[in-house]
Amino acid sequence: MKNHNKSNYSYFKRDISWLSFNHRVLLEAKDKSLPVYERIKFLSIFSSNLEEFYKVRVSGYHSSLLEDIKEESVDEALKTLSVINAEVTRQEEEYYRIFNEEILNELTENKIILYQSDDVMPFHLDFVTKYFNEEVFPYLTPMIIQKDYIHSFILDARIYQVISLMRRKKKEIDTDEMQYTYAIMKIPFTKVPRFIQLPSHNGLHYIMFIDDIIRANLSSIFPGYKVGECYSIKISRDADFSIEDEDHTNIAEKILKKVRKRKIGAVTRFQYDKSMPDYFLKYLCDTYEIEEEELLASGRYLNLDDLMTLPNPTDKKLTADIPEPLRIREFEKNSSILRVLRKKDVMLYFPYQSFDYLLRFLMQAAFDPKVLEIKVTQYRVAENSAVINSLISAAKNGKKVTVFVELKARFDEENNYLTAEAMQQAGIKIIYSLPGLKVHAKLAYIRKRSKDPEVPIKGYAYLSTGNFNEKTARIYSDMGLLTSNHAIIMEIDELFHILEGKQQTKKFEHLLVAQFNMLPALHAMIEQEITHAKEGRKGRIILKMNSLEDKKMIAELYRASEAGVEIDLIIRGICCLVPNQPYSKNIKITRIVDSFLEHSRIWYFHNNGNPTYHLTSADWMSRNLRRRIETAFPIYCEKHQKQIMDILNIQLSDNVKACIIDENLNNIYKTNNQPKVRAQQATYDYLKQVTENEE
Question: DSSP state, 666?
């Protein structure tokens, strides 16, 4: 589905493009060259992605249907919802085919049997009954469903079982639905695991869904009834909210109140086992006021993001090998990272290199007597974070520590708040959110004592494309720069003053900062490539990002393509730019999905042979460019520029995990007669070779 504007440029709809990305995730589960638990991981990611999509994005269309808005807006919302649900249904059919026909067979080949029924083998019957009675039954709260009197509320994202019952006193079971009593029961999710390992038998390992263990024991839950049928259902609820226009007094309290209301938000998706009879589904829809556009048929088992926790009871290696993070020569030969940075900049490439260096950087600053102050932005904080522990140590050592905590980081609001509370108790100054803006910039700034009155501000900085989160740093592909470059340090100091609410007038000359100079700089860099191309010189742009959605920036790329500028886009997720059109014939879109989440953002402009390189926290989405504080930072070191270009070329050469996006949003695997290049493995090998050459 495409949109058209007055200039006849076309744009993919954002949410339809996102579904194309999630389908690419599903294709990894289909890849038989991967170990079975790696394929299962991608099934889990697909489900998790889709759940968030319905909570956040689809909720907007349902809101349009409920609000008093123009008829054409309602029609458009209904049309888009119809397209979304049809595509999700198609993808879920493929999902269950992969799971049932491929994954289960491969598990069996590895002597792992995952039950797909509550029909328990005789040799497991005693175990299943005992486990149910002792570990599950105490946490069940079944309730009879009655129309016009709902005394059960279906919580967000929880699996419920709905059961048809008939009193045993009847001599025969009448199949007429009016003779049934219906019950609903939530599957426990904190007290018992989703998957239960059963005793091995004849060399085979057995695993059972908790859903089926409950199904196998329904008769003991409902004495006096004959159990008919049992199906799983799940509701996804609106989890999106905004406080942008509200008074920001007590912002933390207001955000937390809204976070806690997510569990009771409006319905955006009602998932049900597609084998459920129509009369049963109709009864539930009437009782719980489910609308037709909220219905989504699914499989026997819901919430399959839980597959991430599927146990491996064998001694076989059935997961992907993750290489050991590389060590950095400069930091291995010098005990002080700060001493190294006084002489040179150092690039960090995660997860290919160790995140330990950033932790050492912060910890050494915490104990360095010359360090006066540390300032950090935090968007998504890891639980039990070593980064936070380093900042707490610094505060306890007498350093002035300031942390900007973005409480509006969706689904991390509560964790960020609790972490901020712990930091405050340790004496750290906490700044919460800005009115009308999210702060997405990834910055750490260490200010040291200066004896030079002409240079009052000296120090070190870390600027990154990703969060200060040691857990995601193991699975996200990101880049960061450690530097003591004075000009950059000065501008970071200015930016933190802005975040602290201090009025600043200085213009940024090195950093590109959204809300200040980022958009004008991007327009200027694109325009210079257009000029070069029109005057017969080479025009070349490479952009690597998570998402490309902003129509004004896409229009600029269309203009550049029309002028003859060669453009390569490496976009993992949403991409609203339509390729293979007359105005986009010089634009190619590459999507890479592999073991690590491609998260780094890189902007390269050829600039007639004097190229500019920027790493950034910003995607080209309207929210990033126009409603957030983002930073892009220049890479001046020629060695680092070469490394970044080499990595970009590796990604553009990928013919194993790379897909080309076509004008119909299809993921078309990039194949050619060149030697096989799997970009993530090749990047690791490249950085390893760089390290060895420097020794």
Answer: -
Q: What CA–CA distances, in Å, run from 283 to 145, 162, 183, 287, 299? A: 10, 11, 12, 6, 19
Rounded to a whole number of angstroms, the CA Rg of the chain reads: 28
Per-residue confidence (pLDDT) for residue 654, from 0 to 100 = 98
- Count helices and strands (H / E) in the chain: 21, 30
pLDDT of residue 315: 87
**DSSP line for 571-621:** ESS-B-BPPSSGGGTTEEEEEE-SSSEE--EEEEE-GGGS-EEEEES--BS
Residue 440 is among the residues annotated as catalytic for this protein: yes
Given this model, what pLDDT does residue 75 score?
81
Closest CA to 530 of 500, 554, 566, 506: 566
pLDDT in the model for residue 176: 47
**CA dist list (Å): 41 to 22, 102, 397, 596:** 13, 14, 42, 12
Percent helix, percent strand, percent coil in the chain, to nearest 5: 40, 25, 35
Measured between alpha carbons, how far is 299 from 302 in angstroms, rounded to an integer? 7
Report the C-alpha gap between 365 and 375 in whole angstroms.
11
Per-residue model confidence (pLDDT) at position 241: 57
Non-local (6+) Cβ contacts of 75 within 8 A are: none
pLDDT for 250: 65
Enumerate residue ranges in the chain where pLDDT < 50. 4, 6, 173-178, 245-246
Task: Provide the pairing of β-strand 400-405 with 429-432.
Answer: parallel
**Options 440, 532, 599, 606, the catalytic residue:** 440
Beta-carbon contacts of 197 under 8 Å, excluding residues fewer than 6 positions away, are 205, 206, 207, 311, 313
Look at residue 2 in the predicted model and tell me its pLDDT.
Answer: 60
User: Among residues 358, 366, 611, 319, which one has the least CA distance to residue 466?
Assistant: 358
